[in-house]
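lol ok so funny story. i was supposed to be doing the assay writeup but got distracted and ended up predicting the structure for this chain instead. priorities right. anyway since i did it might as well share w the group, maybe its usefull for someone
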Amino acid sequence: MKRWKTDILRLCMLTVVTDFGDFTRGKELKDFLKQSYAKSSSKSCLSNIRISPDGRHIHIIQQAPRTGLMTHDRYQRAHLQCQEHLDLVLTRNVSIVDLLYFKQNDSEDRALLLGIIFENGKAELWKFSEQKSGWSSLQTMDLCNSPRAKIASVCINQNFIIWCEERPPSESSSVSSVDRSNFTYCICKRTFDVDERGISLGGVKTVLHNNPRYSVVSTGDIVYLLPNIEKESCTSVRKVFLSWAPQSDVFKVHSANNGILLIRNSTANKQLDFKRLITDCVGYLSTITPLDIYGFSPIGHGEILLLLSSGWVCVMQRDGILRQIYKLPDNCLATCGTQNSVNMYDDVVALTVGRMMYLIDIKCGVELERIPLKGEGLLFVNCSETYAPQMFSEAGLYMVIQEETEAQSKPPGAYLENVNSGAVLVEAVFEEACKYYQQRSLSTTQLTSEKLKKGGMFQAPITLADIIRDYLGNSVLKTTGKDCSGHEKLLSCLDSELKSLIALEDMKASVVKASEKDLHSYCETLVQQELCRLLSSEIDRENLQYLNSMFQLFPTESWQAVQTVLQLRCNGEGSLFTKAPAELWKIVLSPVQAAPNYYNSQQKNTPANGALPVFELLCQSIFKFQPNWLPKFLELAQQQSISSSTSSWSFGKENSESLPLYKRALAVLPSKSDCQNLEVELLLCSQRPNAVMQALRMLIGQGQWGRVTQVAEQYCRQSPLLNKEIFTTLLSEVSQHRDLDPYLDLLWTLCPEDMTVTGILNLVLKNLPPTAQLSGPFQVDSEGSQLTIGHLKPLLRKVLQWETRSSQRYADILQSPTFPPPTPQRQVVDLARVNTELDIDLKEKTRSGSPFTSV
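and the output, tada:
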C-alpha cells in the first residue's frame, strides 16, 4: 500500500470502503444510525460506538433505558457471511462502561478477544471466530473487590487493566461533605495474562485516592487521566490532568496551558491522595484560566493528541512538553462544541469538527486539506492501513485517498508566499556554484558570486535562471519538442529542491516574527528537517561539525528528531525496533565521517577535531535523555549492521579496520562509577567473548554474585572456549572466598567436560589466599572462611565419573589378544606428591582422619 505523502501537492478526497452491506445485519445498523442522527443525538451515538482494531467489528453500546450491545461483523470469507451466527448475549442487565480488545498471540482463524466491562465491576470475555459461527462466551469475572463500586472508565496498558471507580464514602478515604460528590473516585490497576482458556487476573491495587471522575487513556507505557467535561461540575478540577506510568508509579500533574507542573513518586507502603498531590500547584492554578479538553486520541509512545477549547491541536509529549500543532479557525469550536473526533495516521493528523475534516502535517503544522462532510463522523485507525485516515459515519465506512494534481493545474510559484522568492533562488544558485567550483579549483582564493559572473567562467546560471524564470513567472518556453522535454525533466528534478528552499526561507521569516510560545515548535521542526537532510546523503566533516553543533545548541529538539527520523519504537517486550531504511542506518553506523585521530585519541569523549561521528552522537543523546535505551539501541544497531552487511565498512584510507559498535557506544559514557551497570549491559549486548569476560569481571569486582551466576549460565552456552574461561574464573573466586557458596550447585553444572581432577586441584591450589596456604590448603578454620574438600567433592566426583566413562571406551581393546607381547612389569616408585586421581581415591579409602575427609 502507498504511504501518505505530504511532500508534493495532492488532492484528498473521501471514498466509500463499505456501506455496511457486507456486515451482519447491515440494514438494521443503517436504520439505527439514521434514527439516532434524526433525533439530533449524533454526539451520544458517536461516543458509544467502538470499532475493532482490524475494522471488522462494529459495537454500539446502548445506554438506559435499554442497555445492551449491538454487534455487527464483517467476515473475510464470503460463504460464511450467509450463515447464521450467534450474537453477543449478555448475561446481566447492567450499563456497559467500555469495551477492551485483548491481543492473543496464538490465535486461530483470526480470533478476537473482547472484554465487556460493566458499571458494577463485572466483566465478560468473548471470543470471535469465523469457523465457530461468530461469538462465544469464555468467562465471567469480577474486576473490582468492592460489590458497591461503580466503574467510570477503563483501559489496557501493557499487561495492566486500569480503571477509575467510584466508591461509597465509607470505603474511601475521609473527605468533607462539600467535596464528597466530586472526590469519591479512585484509580486502580491489576495485572492480567492471556492464555488459551481466557484471562487470569492479579490482585487489585489502588494507586490514587479521592480523585475526581477521570477518563483513563492508555498510550505506550503511560496512562493519562483526563477530566470528564461532560459530567464533571467542578471547574477547578478541569484546570489540570494527570499522567501516570504504571510500571514505576510516577505521577505527573499537567496543565493544558503550560504543560507539566509537578512530578511525584508513589510507593507500595504509601499511596497517593489526589488533594495532597496537587497541593503544591494550588497557588499557580488560581492564576490561570482553565482550558477544556474537547477531544483526545492516544498516538503511542507515551504521547497523546489534545484538542483544546482555545482551538489549538496539541501533542502532550512523554517528557511533559505541550507542543502546539495547529490552530482551528476562530469560533469553529463555538458552533460545533465537543462534536469532534481526532486521530493520527503516520505524520498526518485528521480532525473532524462538525461537518468539516482537517488534514494537518504534524511535523510542521501545515494544513494539507479541508474536506467537507455530509454529516458528523468518527475517526478510527485500522491496524492493516494505519497510514490512511478512516471515518465511521451514518452512510458507511470511508477512507481518505490522495490523487496527484496535474502539473499545469497550479503553477509552482503560486505556493510561494511571504518570501521574495526570486532573490532567494538566484542567490541560492550562485552560492551553490561557488561551493562547487571552490572544490574543483586549485587556488586557495575564496570564490565569490561576483567573480563567477565575470569572465564567462560559469555557464550554469544561464540554464538555471531560465528554469527559475519559468518556475516563478509561469512562462512557457517556445522551443522544440525535444528541448521542451528536457526542460520539463530539469524542472521536475529541481521542483522539490526549490520548494524546500523557499519553505526554509519562509520558516526563517516566521521564526523572526514568532512569539516565545511558537518558537519551540519552529525549532523542533527545523532541527528535524535538518537532521533528515543531513542523513539523506554522505556526511562530510564540515556537515558533521554542523550536526554536532546542532545537538549542542538544541539537545531536546535533536533527541525528538532522532526518534522521528529513525522511527524508533519500543515494543511490549522492552526492545527497540525501527522502520527507517537501510540506507539511513548505513550513514548512521559508518565511522568514515570522523577524523582518523578520533579513534586513536586516548582521552575519552574528547575527539581531536571536536566532532563526534553520527553513531556516537546519537548514543550521547540517548544516554542524556533515555539512558536505559542505550543497550537496546546498541542491539538494534548491531542487527542493522548485520542485515545491511555493514560489518565490512572501513574507515577509509586512514584506518583499515573499524571499531566494534559496542566500543563506540562505550566511548560516550563518562568515567564515573555510577555508569558501571550501563557499561556492563553494553558489554554483554556485544555478544563478544572478550567483552563478556570484561563484564563478568566488573560484576565480580562489584560483588553482584547473583548477577554473576546469571551471566555465567547464559553465556557458557555460547562457545566451549568461553565456557572454560568463565568456569576457571569463577573457580578461582571460589578458592579465595565463600561468597559464591550458595551458587556452587549451579557452578558445578557449568564445568566443561575437558576439565580433569588434576587441573581443578592445581587451579584451586594456585588461587588459594596466602593465609590459607600457611595453615594448610584444606584444613577447616574456626571462622569457616577457607575452602575445604567438602566444597569440591561434588565437582571432583562428577569429573571422575567423566574420566571413568572415557577410559571405558577402550576396554574392548585391552581385552583383545595381546600383540605385540606385553611389556614386563615395572617396579612402582613412590612419588613425593600425589598427582593422579587414582591415588587420591585410594588414599581417601585407606586413610581416616586425613585432610581429604569431607566436612
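The mean pLDDT is 76. The first helix runs from residue 26 to 38.
back to the writeup now i swear
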